[in-house]
Amino acid sequence: MKEYRTINKIAGPLVFVEKTEPVGYEELVNIVQSDGTVKRGQVLDSSDEFVVVQVFESTAGIGKDSGVRFTGETIKMPVGRDMLGRILSGAGKPKDGGPEIVPEKRLDIGGAAINPYARQSPADFIQTGISTIDATNTLVRGQKLPIFSGSGLPHNEIALQIARQARVPGSTEEFAVVFAAMGITKEEENQFMADFERTGALEHAVVFLNLADDPAVERIITPRLALTTAEYLAFELGYHVLVILTDMTNYCEALRQIGAAREEVPGRRGYPGYMYTDLASLYERAGLIKGEKGSVTQLSILTMPGDDITHPIPDLSGYITEGQIVVNRELHRKGIYPPINVLPSLSRLMNAGIGEGKTRDDHKKVSDQMYAGYAEGQDLRGLVAIVGKDALSERDQLLLEFADHFENRFVRQGHDENRTIEDSLDLGWELLSTLPEELLVRIDRDLIQKYHPKYRKQGA
Protein backbone atom coordinates (compact mmCIF):
# COMPACT_ATOMS: atom_id res chain seq x y z
CA MET A 1 0.00 0.00 0.00
CA LYS A 2 1.49 3.33 -1.09
CA GLU A 3 1.89 6.08 1.50
CA TYR A 4 1.64 9.70 0.37
CA ARG A 5 3.28 12.52 2.33
CA THR A 6 1.76 15.24 0.18
CA ILE A 7 -0.78 16.85 2.55
CA ASN A 8 -1.25 20.40 1.29
CA LYS A 9 -3.88 21.82 3.67
CA ILE A 10 -6.00 20.89 6.71
CA ALA A 11 -9.37 22.66 7.12
CA GLY A 12 -11.65 21.57 9.95
CA PRO A 13 -12.35 17.85 9.49
CA LEU A 14 -10.88 17.86 5.95
CA VAL A 15 -7.40 16.98 4.75
CA PHE A 16 -6.31 17.99 1.19
CA VAL A 17 -3.81 15.60 -0.40
CA GLU A 18 -2.09 16.34 -3.74
CA LYS A 19 -0.17 14.35 -6.37
CA THR A 20 -1.94 11.03 -5.83
CA GLU A 21 -2.86 8.27 -8.21
CA PRO A 22 -6.60 7.97 -9.08
CA VAL A 23 -8.67 7.02 -6.03
CA GLY A 24 -12.35 6.15 -5.65
CA TYR A 25 -15.15 8.23 -4.12
CA GLU A 26 -15.89 7.22 -0.46
CA GLU A 27 -12.69 5.12 -0.36
CA LEU A 28 -11.39 4.50 3.17
CA VAL A 29 -8.17 6.23 4.16
CA ASN A 30 -5.63 5.65 6.95
CA ILE A 31 -3.67 8.70 8.08
CA VAL A 32 -0.45 7.83 9.95
CA GLN A 33 0.72 10.56 12.32
CA SER A 34 4.34 11.23 13.19
CA ASP A 35 3.99 9.29 16.49
CA GLY A 36 2.68 6.22 14.64
CA THR A 37 -1.01 6.55 15.63
CA VAL A 38 -3.51 6.02 12.83
CA LYS A 39 -6.67 8.02 12.16
CA ARG A 40 -9.31 6.90 9.69
CA GLY A 41 -11.03 8.95 7.03
CA GLN A 42 -12.96 8.73 3.79
CA VAL A 43 -12.48 10.24 0.32
CA LEU A 44 -15.01 13.03 -0.08
CA ASP A 45 -13.85 14.47 -3.39
CA SER A 46 -11.29 13.64 -6.04
CA SER A 47 -9.85 15.73 -8.87
CA ASP A 48 -6.69 15.89 -10.97
CA GLU A 49 -5.03 18.18 -8.41
CA PHE A 50 -6.38 17.19 -4.97
CA VAL A 51 -8.03 14.39 -3.08
CA VAL A 52 -10.20 15.68 -0.21
CA VAL A 53 -10.32 13.33 2.80
CA GLN A 54 -12.82 13.80 5.63
CA VAL A 55 -11.42 12.50 8.92
CA PHE A 56 -13.73 10.55 11.25
CA GLU A 57 -12.26 12.12 14.39
CA SER A 58 -10.35 15.23 15.34
CA THR A 59 -7.63 16.35 12.92
CA ALA A 60 -5.46 17.44 15.88
CA GLY A 61 -2.01 15.89 15.53
CA ILE A 62 -2.19 15.56 11.74
CA GLY A 63 0.53 17.58 10.02
CA LYS A 64 2.03 17.94 6.57
CA ASP A 65 4.53 15.22 7.49
CA SER A 66 1.73 12.68 8.16
CA GLY A 67 1.39 9.74 5.77
CA VAL A 68 -1.83 9.03 3.85
CA ARG A 69 -2.73 5.50 2.70
CA PHE A 70 -5.70 4.71 0.45
CA THR A 71 -7.11 1.27 1.26
CA GLY A 72 -9.18 0.65 -1.89
CA GLU A 73 -12.27 -0.21 0.21
CA THR A 74 -15.44 1.66 1.20
CA ILE A 75 -17.05 1.73 4.68
CA LYS A 76 -18.79 -1.53 5.45
CA MET A 77 -21.15 -2.32 8.34
CA PRO A 78 -20.63 -5.67 10.09
CA VAL A 79 -24.10 -7.16 10.43
CA GLY A 80 -25.46 -10.28 12.09
CA ARG A 81 -28.52 -11.75 13.77
CA ASP A 82 -27.05 -11.09 17.25
CA MET A 83 -27.19 -7.29 16.68
CA LEU A 84 -30.69 -7.17 18.19
CA GLY A 85 -30.51 -5.94 21.76
CA ARG A 86 -27.28 -4.00 21.23
CA ILE A 87 -26.46 -0.31 21.79
CA LEU A 88 -23.78 1.00 19.42
CA SER A 89 -21.98 4.29 18.91
CA GLY A 90 -22.61 6.49 15.90
CA ALA A 91 -19.66 4.73 14.23
CA GLY A 92 -21.11 1.26 14.90
CA LYS A 93 -18.90 0.35 17.88
CA PRO A 94 -20.44 -1.28 21.01
CA LYS A 95 -21.45 1.20 23.75
CA ASP A 96 -23.22 -1.27 26.06
CA GLY A 97 -20.12 -3.00 27.41
CA GLY A 98 -20.81 -6.04 25.24
CA PRO A 99 -18.40 -7.77 22.84
CA GLU A 100 -17.68 -6.67 19.28
CA ILE A 101 -20.31 -7.79 16.76
CA VAL A 102 -19.35 -11.06 15.10
CA PRO A 103 -20.39 -10.31 11.53
CA GLU A 104 -22.25 -12.73 9.30
CA LYS A 105 -21.74 -10.20 6.50
CA ARG A 106 -20.10 -6.84 5.85
CA LEU A 107 -22.38 -4.57 3.81
CA ASP A 108 -21.59 -1.29 2.05
CA ILE A 109 -23.29 1.51 4.01
CA GLY A 110 -24.34 3.25 0.79
CA GLY A 111 -26.95 0.53 0.28
CA ALA A 112 -28.38 -0.59 -3.05
CA ALA A 113 -31.05 1.46 -4.80
CA ILE A 114 -34.43 -0.28 -5.04
CA ASN A 115 -35.53 -0.67 -8.66
CA PRO A 116 -38.85 1.27 -8.90
CA TYR A 117 -40.40 -1.67 -10.78
CA ALA A 118 -39.46 -4.00 -7.90
CA ARG A 119 -41.10 -1.77 -5.28
CA GLN A 120 -44.32 -3.02 -3.75
CA SER A 121 -47.00 -0.51 -2.76
CA PRO A 122 -47.30 -0.11 1.04
CA ALA A 123 -50.66 -1.42 2.31
CA ASP A 124 -50.34 -2.75 5.90
CA PHE A 125 -51.34 -0.69 8.94
CA ILE A 126 -48.74 -0.16 11.71
CA GLN A 127 -50.22 0.55 15.13
CA THR A 128 -48.14 2.99 17.18
CA GLY A 129 -50.60 3.19 20.10
CA ILE A 130 -50.86 6.99 19.60
CA SER A 131 -54.39 8.04 18.53
CA THR A 132 -53.38 11.14 16.56
CA ILE A 133 -51.15 8.97 14.36
CA ASP A 134 -53.15 5.73 14.16
CA ALA A 135 -56.62 7.21 13.64
CA THR A 136 -55.97 10.43 11.70
CA ASN A 137 -52.46 10.16 10.12
CA THR A 138 -51.95 6.44 9.80
CA LEU A 139 -48.45 4.97 9.41
CA VAL A 140 -48.29 2.21 6.78
CA ARG A 141 -45.64 -0.51 6.53
CA GLY A 142 -42.95 0.56 4.04
CA GLN A 143 -43.77 4.28 4.37
CA LYS A 144 -41.40 7.15 5.13
CA LEU A 145 -43.18 9.60 7.44
CA PRO A 146 -41.26 12.44 9.14
CA ILE A 147 -42.15 14.09 12.45
CA PHE A 148 -41.73 17.89 12.30
CA SER A 149 -41.01 19.26 15.76
CA GLY A 150 -39.37 22.25 17.42
CA SER A 151 -36.65 22.88 19.97
CA GLY A 152 -37.77 21.94 23.49
CA LEU A 153 -40.78 19.89 22.36
CA PRO A 154 -41.12 16.23 23.46
CA HIS A 155 -40.25 14.61 20.11
CA ASN A 156 -37.76 12.27 21.79
CA GLU A 157 -40.47 11.00 24.17
CA ILE A 158 -42.79 10.43 21.19
CA ALA A 159 -40.00 8.55 19.36
CA LEU A 160 -39.35 6.32 22.37
CA GLN A 161 -43.09 5.65 22.82
CA ILE A 162 -43.40 4.61 19.16
CA ALA A 163 -40.28 2.43 19.46
CA ARG A 164 -41.85 0.64 22.47
CA GLN A 165 -45.37 0.25 21.13
CA ALA A 166 -45.19 -0.11 17.33
CA ARG A 167 -46.54 -3.38 15.92
CA VAL A 168 -48.73 -4.79 13.16
CA PRO A 169 -52.01 -5.96 14.80
CA GLY A 170 -52.82 -9.62 14.24
CA SER A 171 -49.43 -10.32 12.68
CA THR A 172 -47.08 -13.01 13.98
CA GLU A 173 -44.22 -11.84 11.74
CA GLU A 174 -40.96 -10.77 13.36
CA PHE A 175 -40.79 -7.04 14.11
CA ALA A 176 -37.68 -5.00 14.95
CA VAL A 177 -36.78 -1.36 15.61
CA VAL A 178 -33.57 0.36 14.48
CA PHE A 179 -33.13 3.59 16.45
CA ALA A 180 -30.47 6.12 15.39
CA ALA A 181 -29.90 9.32 17.36
CA MET A 182 -27.59 12.01 15.91
CA GLY A 183 -25.99 14.93 17.72
CA ILE A 184 -27.69 14.22 21.06
CA THR A 185 -26.50 15.39 24.48
CA LYS A 186 -25.16 13.05 27.18
CA GLU A 187 -28.40 13.62 29.11
CA GLU A 188 -30.47 12.50 26.11
CA GLU A 189 -28.21 9.48 25.65
CA ASN A 190 -28.83 8.41 29.25
CA GLN A 191 -32.59 8.97 28.77
CA PHE A 192 -32.67 6.79 25.64
CA MET A 193 -30.59 3.98 27.17
CA ALA A 194 -32.58 3.98 30.43
CA ASP A 195 -35.92 3.91 28.59
CA PHE A 196 -34.95 1.04 26.29
CA GLU A 197 -33.66 -1.01 29.21
CA ARG A 198 -36.58 -0.14 31.55
CA THR A 199 -39.29 -1.14 29.09
CA GLY A 200 -37.61 -4.19 27.58
CA ALA A 201 -37.90 -2.64 24.10
CA LEU A 202 -34.16 -3.20 23.62
CA GLU A 203 -34.77 -6.93 23.10
CA HIS A 204 -36.06 -6.33 19.56
CA ALA A 205 -34.05 -3.15 18.80
CA VAL A 206 -30.65 -2.01 17.55
CA VAL A 207 -29.67 1.43 18.87
CA PHE A 208 -27.07 3.81 17.38
CA LEU A 209 -26.11 6.86 19.50
CA ASN A 210 -24.02 9.70 18.06
CA LEU A 211 -23.27 12.41 20.66
CA ALA A 212 -23.03 16.17 20.14
CA ASP A 213 -19.30 16.13 20.92
CA ASP A 214 -18.60 13.36 18.39
CA PRO A 215 -17.11 14.48 15.05
CA ALA A 216 -19.53 15.95 12.51
CA VAL A 217 -18.34 13.42 9.95
CA GLU A 218 -19.57 10.55 12.15
CA ARG A 219 -23.03 12.15 12.11
CA ILE A 220 -23.08 11.70 8.32
CA ILE A 221 -22.33 7.98 8.69
CA THR A 222 -24.72 7.12 11.58
CA PRO A 223 -28.02 7.03 9.62
CA ARG A 224 -26.36 5.03 6.84
CA LEU A 225 -25.12 2.43 9.32
CA ALA A 226 -28.63 2.24 10.80
CA LEU A 227 -30.33 1.87 7.41
CA THR A 228 -27.82 -0.79 6.30
CA THR A 229 -28.60 -2.73 9.48
CA ALA A 230 -32.35 -2.33 8.80
CA GLU A 231 -32.00 -3.54 5.22
CA TYR A 232 -30.10 -6.63 6.39
CA LEU A 233 -32.73 -7.46 9.03
CA ALA A 234 -35.57 -6.83 6.54
CA PHE A 235 -34.43 -8.27 3.25
CA GLU A 236 -32.10 -11.04 4.43
CA LEU A 237 -33.66 -12.13 7.74
CA GLY A 238 -37.30 -11.30 6.92
CA TYR A 239 -37.99 -8.80 9.74
CA HIS A 240 -40.42 -5.92 9.43
CA VAL A 241 -38.22 -3.05 10.58
CA LEU A 242 -39.20 0.40 11.85
CA VAL A 243 -36.28 2.85 11.54
CA ILE A 244 -36.42 5.95 13.77
CA LEU A 245 -33.91 8.70 12.89
CA THR A 246 -33.55 11.66 15.26
CA ASP A 247 -32.59 14.47 14.75
CA MET A 248 -32.26 15.06 11.00
CA THR A 249 -31.60 18.75 11.67
CA ASN A 250 -28.34 17.81 13.40
CA TYR A 251 -27.48 15.66 10.38
CA CYS A 252 -28.09 18.60 8.00
CA GLU A 253 -26.04 20.93 10.23
CA ALA A 254 -23.13 18.46 9.87
CA LEU A 255 -23.60 18.56 6.07
CA ARG A 256 -23.44 22.37 6.20
CA GLN A 257 -20.33 22.31 8.40
CA ILE A 258 -18.48 19.97 6.04
CA GLY A 259 -19.64 21.97 3.00
CA ALA A 260 -18.23 25.14 4.56
CA ALA A 261 -14.91 23.40 5.26
CA ARG A 262 -14.78 22.35 1.59
CA GLU A 263 -15.44 26.00 0.61
CA GLU A 264 -18.48 24.98 -1.45
CA VAL A 265 -20.84 27.61 -2.83
CA PRO A 266 -23.70 27.55 -0.28
CA GLY A 267 -27.37 27.15 -1.16
CA ARG A 268 -30.42 28.30 0.83
CA ARG A 269 -29.46 29.48 4.35
CA GLY A 270 -25.94 28.17 3.88
CA TYR A 271 -26.90 24.53 3.37
CA PRO A 272 -25.26 22.65 0.47
CA GLY A 273 -27.09 22.75 -2.85
CA TYR A 274 -27.03 18.93 -2.94
CA MET A 275 -28.87 18.55 0.40
CA TYR A 276 -32.08 17.45 -1.38
CA THR A 277 -30.20 14.61 -3.12
CA ASP A 278 -28.39 13.67 0.08
CA LEU A 279 -31.61 13.48 2.12
CA ALA A 280 -33.29 11.49 -0.68
CA SER A 281 -30.45 8.95 -0.51
CA LEU A 282 -31.54 8.25 3.10
CA TYR A 283 -35.33 8.58 2.90
CA GLU A 284 -35.66 6.47 -0.26
CA ARG A 285 -34.14 3.47 1.51
CA ALA A 286 -37.55 2.79 3.06
CA GLY A 287 -39.97 0.47 1.28
CA LEU A 288 -41.14 -2.99 0.33
CA ILE A 289 -39.66 -5.20 -2.40
CA LYS A 290 -41.79 -7.63 -4.39
CA GLY A 291 -41.07 -11.20 -3.39
CA GLU A 292 -39.20 -10.23 -0.21
CA LYS A 293 -40.70 -11.06 3.16
CA GLY A 294 -39.44 -8.05 5.18
CA SER A 295 -39.93 -4.29 4.99
CA VAL A 296 -38.28 -1.03 6.06
CA THR A 297 -40.51 1.75 7.44
CA GLN A 298 -39.00 5.12 8.35
CA LEU A 299 -39.93 7.73 10.97
CA SER A 300 -37.44 10.58 10.73
CA ILE A 301 -37.65 13.32 13.35
CA LEU A 302 -36.44 16.86 12.69
CA THR A 303 -36.59 20.05 14.74
CA MET A 304 -37.65 23.06 12.66
CA PRO A 305 -35.38 26.06 13.46
CA GLY A 306 -37.63 28.80 14.81
CA ASP A 307 -40.65 26.48 14.31
CA ASP A 308 -40.47 27.49 10.63
CA ILE A 309 -42.04 24.78 8.44
CA THR A 310 -40.70 26.58 5.32
CA HIS A 311 -37.10 26.14 6.53
CA PRO A 312 -35.01 24.16 3.97
CA ILE A 313 -34.79 21.00 6.12
CA PRO A 314 -38.54 20.39 6.66
CA ASP A 315 -39.29 21.85 3.23
CA LEU A 316 -37.06 19.37 1.37
CA SER A 317 -38.06 16.49 3.67
CA GLY A 318 -41.72 17.16 2.87
CA TYR A 319 -41.03 16.86 -0.86
CA ILE A 320 -39.25 13.51 -0.55
CA THR A 321 -41.37 11.78 2.10
CA GLU A 322 -45.02 10.71 2.18
CA GLY A 323 -46.52 13.29 4.54
CA GLN A 324 -45.59 14.71 7.94
CA ILE A 325 -46.63 14.58 11.61
CA VAL A 326 -46.45 18.09 13.13
CA VAL A 327 -45.67 18.57 16.84
CA ASN A 328 -47.28 21.80 18.06
CA ARG A 329 -45.87 24.26 20.61
CA GLU A 330 -49.29 25.68 21.57
CA LEU A 331 -50.60 22.22 22.54
CA HIS A 332 -47.40 21.63 24.50
CA ARG A 333 -47.96 24.87 26.43
CA LYS A 334 -51.42 23.58 27.38
CA GLY A 335 -49.75 20.54 28.97
CA ILE A 336 -51.08 18.14 26.32
CA TYR A 337 -48.96 15.10 25.46
CA PRO A 338 -48.30 14.11 22.72
CA PRO A 339 -48.75 17.64 21.33
CA ILE A 340 -49.48 16.49 17.75
CA ASN A 341 -51.55 18.93 15.69
CA VAL A 342 -53.63 16.89 13.23
CA LEU A 343 -54.56 19.88 11.03
CA PRO A 344 -51.20 20.44 9.26
CA SER A 345 -50.29 16.73 9.62
CA LEU A 346 -50.74 14.37 6.70
CA SER A 347 -50.13 10.74 5.79
CA ARG A 348 -50.32 10.37 2.01
CA LEU A 349 -50.48 6.56 2.21
CA MET A 350 -53.13 6.42 4.95
CA ASN A 351 -55.95 5.29 2.64
CA ALA A 352 -53.87 2.30 1.47
CA GLY A 353 -53.50 0.92 4.99
CA ILE A 354 -56.95 1.38 6.54
CA GLY A 355 -60.49 0.10 6.09
CA GLU A 356 -62.28 -3.20 6.42
CA GLY A 357 -59.92 -6.12 6.91
CA LYS A 358 -57.05 -3.81 7.90
CA THR A 359 -58.38 -1.52 10.63
CA ARG A 360 -62.17 -0.98 10.58
CA ASP A 361 -64.75 -0.01 7.96
CA ASP A 362 -65.54 3.30 9.71
CA HIS A 363 -61.90 4.46 10.02
CA LYS A 364 -61.72 6.90 7.10
CA LYS A 365 -65.13 8.49 7.74
CA VAL A 366 -64.52 8.96 11.49
CA SER A 367 -61.11 10.50 10.77
CA ASP A 368 -62.57 12.93 8.21
CA GLN A 369 -65.44 13.95 10.52
CA MET A 370 -63.15 14.57 13.53
CA TYR A 371 -60.76 16.56 11.35
CA ALA A 372 -63.60 18.72 9.98
CA GLY A 373 -65.09 19.32 13.45
CA TYR A 374 -61.71 20.21 15.00
CA ALA A 375 -60.78 22.52 12.09
CA GLU A 376 -64.06 24.42 12.42
CA GLY A 377 -63.68 24.59 16.21
CA GLN A 378 -60.18 26.07 15.77
CA ASP A 379 -61.55 28.75 13.41
CA LEU A 380 -64.27 29.61 15.93
CA ARG A 381 -61.64 30.16 18.65
CA GLY A 382 -60.32 33.04 16.58
CA LEU A 383 -63.84 34.41 16.19
CA VAL A 384 -64.50 34.17 19.95
CA ALA A 385 -61.45 36.34 20.56
CA ILE A 386 -63.16 39.10 18.54
CA VAL A 387 -66.90 38.83 19.25
CA GLY A 388 -67.05 36.75 22.45
CA LYS A 389 -68.52 33.29 23.04
CA ASP A 390 -72.07 34.56 23.71
CA ALA A 391 -72.34 35.83 20.13
CA LEU A 392 -71.98 32.30 18.73
CA SER A 393 -74.93 30.17 17.61
CA GLU A 394 -75.76 26.95 19.46
CA ARG A 395 -74.18 24.92 16.63
CA ASP A 396 -70.96 26.95 16.80
CA GLN A 397 -70.78 26.58 20.59
CA LEU A 398 -71.04 22.78 20.22
CA LEU A 399 -68.17 22.76 17.70
CA LEU A 400 -66.10 25.00 19.98
CA GLU A 401 -66.61 22.54 22.84
CA PHE A 402 -65.82 19.64 20.47
CA ALA A 403 -62.39 21.20 19.75
CA ASP A 404 -61.65 21.32 23.50
CA HIS A 405 -62.83 17.72 24.03
CA PHE A 406 -60.78 16.58 21.02
CA GLU A 407 -57.56 18.05 22.47
CA ASN A 408 -58.15 16.95 26.06
CA ARG A 409 -59.47 13.44 25.43
CA PHE A 410 -58.35 12.31 21.97
CA VAL A 411 -54.97 14.05 21.53
CA ARG A 412 -53.97 13.81 25.20
CA GLN A 413 -52.77 10.42 26.41
CA GLY A 414 -50.17 9.00 28.81
CA HIS A 415 -46.51 8.40 27.99
CA ASP A 416 -47.06 4.65 28.44
CA GLU A 417 -50.68 4.56 27.22
CA ASN A 418 -50.89 2.13 24.31
CA ARG A 419 -54.29 2.53 22.60
CA THR A 420 -55.42 -0.02 20.05
CA ILE A 421 -56.96 1.30 16.82
CA GLU A 422 -60.36 0.12 18.12
CA ASP A 423 -59.83 2.18 21.30
CA SER A 424 -58.98 5.26 19.23
CA LEU A 425 -61.96 4.90 16.88
CA ASP A 426 -64.38 4.20 19.75
CA LEU A 427 -63.09 7.31 21.52
CA GLY A 428 -63.63 9.24 18.29
CA TRP A 429 -67.27 8.09 18.17
CA GLU A 430 -67.70 9.07 21.82
CA LEU A 431 -66.56 12.61 21.00
CA LEU A 432 -68.67 12.80 17.82
CA SER A 433 -71.74 11.75 19.83
CA THR A 434 -71.60 15.17 21.57
CA LEU A 435 -72.60 16.71 18.20
CA PRO A 436 -76.12 16.46 16.67
CA GLU A 437 -76.36 13.69 14.08
CA GLU A 438 -77.24 16.20 11.35
CA LEU A 439 -73.71 17.66 11.73
CA LEU A 440 -72.08 14.28 10.99
CA VAL A 441 -72.27 14.92 7.25
CA ARG A 442 -69.06 13.03 6.41
CA ILE A 443 -70.23 9.69 7.82
CA ASP A 444 -72.63 7.33 6.03
CA ARG A 445 -75.93 6.62 7.76
CA ASP A 446 -75.30 2.87 7.99
CA LEU A 447 -71.98 3.51 9.82
CA ILE A 448 -73.73 5.86 12.27
CA GLN A 449 -76.29 3.18 13.08
CA LYS A 450 -73.54 0.58 13.46
CA TYR A 451 -71.04 2.49 15.64
CA HIS A 452 -72.74 5.58 17.17
CA PRO A 453 -72.91 5.10 20.98
CA LYS A 454 -76.65 5.87 20.98
CA TYR A 455 -77.47 2.99 18.64
CA ARG A 456 -74.94 0.65 20.23
CA LYS A 457 -76.69 1.08 23.58
CA GLN A 458 -80.06 0.41 21.96
CA GLY A 459 -78.66 -2.73 20.34
CA ALA A 460 -77.24 -3.90 23.65
TrEMBL record:
Q: One GO molecular function term?
A: proton-transporting ATP synthase activity, rotational mechanism
Briefly, what is this protein's role?
Component of the A-type ATP synthase that produces ATP from ADP in the presence of a proton gradient across the membrane. The B chain is a regulatory subunit.
Q: Which InterPro entries match?
A: ATP-synt_VA_C, ATPase_a/bsu_AS, ATPase_F1/V1/A1_a/bsu_N, ATPase_F1/V1/A1_a/bsu_nucl-bd, P-loop_NTPase, V-ATPase_su_B/beta
Pfam families in alphabetical order: ATP-synt_ab (PF00006), ATP-synt_ab_N (PF02874), ATP-synt_VA_C (PF22919)
A GO biological-process term: proton motive force-driven plasma membrane ATP synthesis
What topology does the record note for this protein and the membrane? Peripheral membrane protein
- Domain (ATPase F1/V1/A1 complex alpha/beta subunit nucleotide-binding) spans 129-347
- Annotated ranges, domain ATP synthase A/B type C-terminal: 353-451
Q: Where is the ATPase F1/V1/A1 complex alpha/beta subunit N-terminal domain?
A: 8-72
Question: What is this protein called in UniProt?
Answer: A-type ATP synthase subunit B
Q: Name one GO cellular component term.
A: plasma membrane
